[in-house]
Design brief:
homodimer, alpha+beta, four-stranded antiparallel β-sheet, 39% helix
């Protein structure tokens, strides 16, 4: 992955700018190298330090998330910062219920290993951010999602990936908690009925930084070879 | 969004590295500025130039995509490069069928506007890449997706967002075509029954670069103010 610059000269010849508007930035080799490193180091985080996060950071991350493309330009992402201790406790209780049920579904050694895994940092993370998709939004007027309505929620996932990369580049860790009952979380947070939970994120400074995913390090699942087929 | 560096000193104090493994890179202010610009300039592309794309680029992009985190480290992404002209024609025919049905669902002025929009670059794009989710993968052993099984496909979307950002940084454009019958595309490409289509991507050098989304520029849908609520 070291020598992977594409022929930019071909690009320059092939492309003209939009008639108006600013000139696109040059993403040079140094940037590309660091971007690749960012993908590598953007791992799910469940072990947070107690260090507080600057209050403006969340607004900034949400703004960057909202730059993601979306189907029909529908921008269906809805962000809810969960600050109330009482609400956080209800979320944590739901996680513990769902996690106990998940543990019960594994047997013997797998159950023992599962029980040792740290699967969420809900108690420690300074920021809790629930991310919803408004599945009844009129924005975009339905364009692009008649045959694949799931692309509406997929657009929200793209925004979350932006947020996670932007956070990691700023030294923050993001943990995506999915061991939750999504309807229960929506009820706890009292959001509109059309808002579907896509992700519940923990955000904060990580205790440790690792290049290998938590589940790889603890022997749950190894990395697989990539699959690119040709037809 | 100019003065948005987080207090890195706090971070350095709060964090220790993993016991072994390499040191994480420093993402400095220049990198953060360019990363923000990358989010801004990563727009869906439907107007491709005829310039060929280096053969190694696709392997590289797929490898970067596969660095994304995934639920239970399940790595459910499956990539199929569609190179056969005959298969591409079948895909284009399906797009045209679905797009005609979509057009028929709009009335009067909206229909006229819809008809003028360019919604895919399937004919011009040098690379067609179908991205699937293996919904029966045993990898990850079901961890994290008992209550939210959709997170398996969401993991694939995260990988696609990596791919799109990496492509844009290299001067390549990516267009996500969702006006397709996903079962029909799976049948055309003869993939295993458990592979669910997440995205059909067109990749190539863009004819023009814009900061504003195509649908915004052509008056279909304006940008909305971000929504961050607090509870």
């Amino acid at each position: 992955m070291k020598n992977r610059l594409l022929p930019r000269d071909a690009l320059i010849c092939a492309m003209t700018r939009g008639a108006e508007g600013p000139e696109p930035p040059r993403f040079d080799a140094d940037f590309l190298n660091l971007l690749d490193e960012l993908f590598r180091w953007r791992r799910d985080v469940r072990r947070f330090s107690a260090a507080p996060v600057d209050g403006a950071a969340l607004d900034e991350l949400v703004a960057l998330a909202a730059l993601a493309p979306s189907v029909g330009h529908s921008q269906p992402w809805r962000f809810v910062a969960v600050e109330s201790e009482a609400l956080r406790k209800e979320v944590i209780a739901d996680f513990e219920r769902c996690n106990a049920a998940a543990l019960a579904s594994y047997e013997s050694e797998m159950a023992a290993l599962y029980a040792r895994l740290k699967l969420a940092g809900l108690r420690e993370a300074p920021i809790h951010l629930a991310v919803f998709c408004d599945i009844e939004t009129q924005a975009g007027r339905g364009l692009g999602r008649a045959t694949m309505p799931e692309t509406l929620c997929y657009s929200v996932v793209g925004a979350i990936q932006n947020l996670a990369l932007a956070a990691r580049a700023r030294g923050l860790g993001v943990g995506w908690v999915s061991i939750l009952d999504p309807l229960k979380i929506a009820a706890i947070l009292d959001v509109p009925g059309a808002w579907r939970l896509v992700a519940y994120l923990c955000i904060g400074y990580p205790q440790e930084e690792h290049l290998d995913p938590e589940l790889e390090r603890h022997g749950w699942q190894a990395r697989l070879p990539g699959i690119l087929q040709r037809r």
